[in-house]
Amino acid sequence: ELEEAPDRVYLGERGTVCACDSRWRRVRQTADTVRALQCDNVFLLACDGRHPPFDGVFDKVLLDAPCSATGVMHRHPDARWLRTPDDIATRRRERSYLRTMGAICR
Question: Which long-range contacts link 70-77 to residues 24+ away (Cβ below 8 Å)?
């Protein structure tokens, strides 16, 4: 997804931000954060980043792409058995496709 991280939202006083995520729960969390920060220049959108409803309209695109979680296996040893090589390959393809979609939005 062209997604937002609700615990990492920082916005200046200039410009407009469009935060997108396909998971409604994340959109609601971000809405709570934006409301707490009293930001009026943020617009939230629940959409699938693989098929964004816009193109060529943004100056900049920040993509928080889904990861394979292989970097945190020391903290979550069970991930070693939950992830398969196919899962990792799928995530790699998703990230690549999302980067392409993010580039189209610029």
Answer: none
pLDDT tens for the 106 residues of the chain, in order: 444 454 445 555 567 888 888 889 989 998 998 899 888 888 898 988 888 887 777 887 777 777 777 777 778 788 778 888 888 888 888 888 788 877 777 6
Q: Distances in Å between the alpha carbon of 77 and those of 68, 69, 72, 84, 88? A: 14, 11, 8, 14, 16
pTM, 2 dp: 0.62
Label residues 6-30 b or e (16+ Cβ within 10 Å = b).
beebebeeeeebbbbbbeeebbebb
